[in-house]
Amino acid sequence: MSTLRIPVDVPSPTQDCEKLKNAFQGLGTDEKAIIRILGRRNANQRKKIRETYQQLFNKSLIDCISSELSGDFRKVVILWTYDPAERDARLANEALKSWRKTINQLQIIVEIACASSPHHLVAVRQAYCSLFDCSLEEDIISNVSQPVQKILVSLVGSYRYDKQVVDSTIAKMEAAKLHNAIGAKKLDDYEFVQVISTRNISQLRETFNCYKDDYGKNIDQDIMACGKGILESIMKVVVWCINSPEKHFAEVIRSAIVGLGTDEDSLNRAIVSRAEIDMTKIIEEYFIANKSSLDNAVIGDTSGDYKDFLLTLLGEDV
Amino acid sequence: MSTLRIPVDVPSPTQDCEKLKNAFQGLGTDEKAIIRILGRRNANQRKKIRETYQQLFNKSLIDCISSELSGDFRKVVILWTYDPAERDARLANEALKSWRKTINQLQIIVEIACASSPHHLVAVRQAYCSLFDCSLEEDIISNVSQPVQKILVSLVGSYRYDKQVVDSTIAKMEAAKLHNAIGAKKLDDYEFVQVISTRNISQLRETFNCYKDDYGKNIDQDIMACGKGILESIMKVVVWCINSPEKHFAEVIRSAIVGLGTDEDSLNRAIVSRAEIDMTKIIEEYFIANKSSLDNAVIGDTSGDYKDFLLTLLGEDV
């Protein structure tokens, strides 16, 4: 469930745009107004606001945000204002073009492929082509080395059946296939990759349950016991994104916040991309895992308008 | 270009539906009216006719066609009346579930993946999930043996960049990769499959041109010199569907018609699926390859309303 708090009487896109225009104008920017408006509109409403803004003022709303705001606050508001498919295409591109391609960068591609609807995944691939003049797969191939490359290409090529249909016999059989591959430390085994990139989510959850029942351990534990490389980390994220995206994103937020300094990019991505999907459950999972509230963690690690915007997306009154 | 001849003044969907209803009613069916109406409407118009028919008479147009027509005429009219994505999903499913899975059956999947727009391919995958409660990939995996299986799975997973952008350096480099794989008779080589299933169509055409320039022969000739199995045949169809879908479909029609008897399923598929896309060019390619007209070939091998319907789709007055 979404944590977004949309007002009962939503102003028209024209009213919203005029208020935003006023917020940008004058000597100081009215950040509170921007938070109040954009932070409380869903993806469809934001789309209409973007379109209306362009029509009314012949300017891109994103450009105005970009020139009027600054720092992390600017980053997160822009991310939130993009169309979700364009946002994810841009995040994937940044990850692929970044100099360091650790699990922190590459997991964004797994999230898009395994923790989104097939419809959203296709929309991201389409946006990627439009924005970057090549396919997402081509950029994965030219920027990611093997064996992770072929896993990511298979995952983004999926168009999973999206109903809850489970065949227990297949689950048991495929749990055995996964177990064999893991036993041989071959996480990039053809059949392993095929199973995780073609089966529907419910089916895979049943397969992971069978794995635990038949072999005693959770599949992600056995994967991590194979080694400490990027391959193992990627496969663990795959399993988590399929099995429990809420736990995955709770963990992304935890590791963005833990220790000295904050990884704002990961924090933004997790909150912005899940606020309208399953943030209520992520907050629960965060509390279970960390015995403290996600809101407090955000309050402790961020400040000012940036903090207020994140808390607004988390459903708080600021 | 399409061979479809849509009247200048298209009747409203309601008028079309009422005429169709009349054509179905009474003692004899008015086949000519059905040909005149459905054979001269494009995919969007047919969609509106299907929807309007359901609303007006609370019956499915496809069901009415199915109960009122018979034989090959019924088959082709139904195929034509389906939404194109649903039609291709059904054709792919029939191919995968057929007892014999020769090139004749499996090439339909290559056509969908390599001779259609990325948008259409995704629409087919979506329709496949809705109709058959699993993904197209899952059915390929459970019905096609290796190594063709992995090639088809990769091809249907593609979402190619659909602009005409070509990098000659990459083309030359990838022509060498393809040449190496063919030289080693490894047509299912990972890099070979990756190139043909991720690069955009213009880029691949340039790669095939480089292949000819650098190695003296057309790539499809070299592929066919690797052997006479299903793998070689599939890869040849892949190259043809990418390089010149018109030649491929001209050849599908030729081989459906040549010799004793007619392969109506292939004939229907080629004409129905390409009438609105590139049938003008297919007719040209057919003439170049066979020194006779496609229309005459259809006239020679079919009869009655079936013949008239095919000729209508080919742009003839019947």
TrEMBL record, chains A, B:
Coiled coil: none annotated. GO terms for molecular function: calcium-dependent phospholipid binding; metal ion binding. One of its GO terms (biological process) is response to stress. PANTHER family: ANNEXIN, ANNEXIN D3. A pair of annexin repeats may form one binding site for calcium and phospholipid. Belongs to the annexin family. Keywords: Annexin, Calcium, Calcium/phospholipid-binding, Metal-binding, Repeat. This is Annexin. It comes from the Eukaryota. It comes from Penstemon smallii. InterPro entries: Annexin, Annexin_repeat, Annexin_repeat_CS, Annexin_sf. SUPFAM superfamilies: Annexin (SSF47874).
